[in-house]
Amino acid sequence: MKIIMFFPLLLLVCSFSAVETETAVQQPCPQDVHAVLRELTASLAVQNERITVLQRENQAKLESQKIETDKLTQQLQVKQVAFSASLLDQGSRETGPFNTQITLVFKRVVTNIGNAYNPHTGIFTAPVRGVYHFDWNLYGDGNLAAGGVLFRNGEHIFIAYEHQTSSGVSTSNGALLLLDVGDQVSVRLYTGARLNDSQNHHNTFSGHLIFTM
């Protein structure tokens, strides 16, 4: 009888010992806890740095997209650009000759869609990047040459020139130009040339946007 009662008691003691041993194994020592905390802190710092980098990259992408959106919006708003003007707004007058090239100011504006042409300076300023077409027609009395040069930002592009010893003389030319926003186009009177204009408006300068790019 004593042997039978002792055996269950022994099992109970062994069970308590096993539980205490398992609990002791599961509980880390203070040094291990500090090490884990340090690892977690370092990991959080790395994650925060990655988040900061991603935020900066996203901000840069958003700014770039905004710039592109603004450009597209501007291009959509500036769909139509066209102008046409003659040299004199009234009366009759000769222009030239001069010993240097001067910008011709075509004062009588009949069309200026988009307001890209300035009748006070004679300069067309591109409001949007694209391909533009320009043409200029000039008239003289024949004693001197009639001539004008198309310029883009100070660069000589094409010339219209004609010289006869008698009667009136006329000349014209045209050009297709790829312009960036802010590029300037004008016609300069050729050195030594002279133009004659009247209420018939023989001397003209015109241009228009063909398509944007």
Describe the structure.
This protein is of the alpha+beta class. The chain has helices at residues 2-26, 30-77; strands at residues 82-86, 93-95, 102-103, 108-113, 117-118, 123-125, 130-140, 146-152, 155-162, 169-179, 184-189, 195-197, 204-212. It has two domains: 2-76; 79-212, Jelly Rolls. Helices cover 34% and strands 36% of the residues. The chain starts with a helix and ends with a strand. The model is unreliable at 1-14 and 16-25 (pLDDT under 50). This is C1q domain-containing protein. It is found in: Secreted.
Task: Summarize the model shown.
With 213 residues, the protein is of the alpha+beta class. Helix content is 34%, strand content 36%.
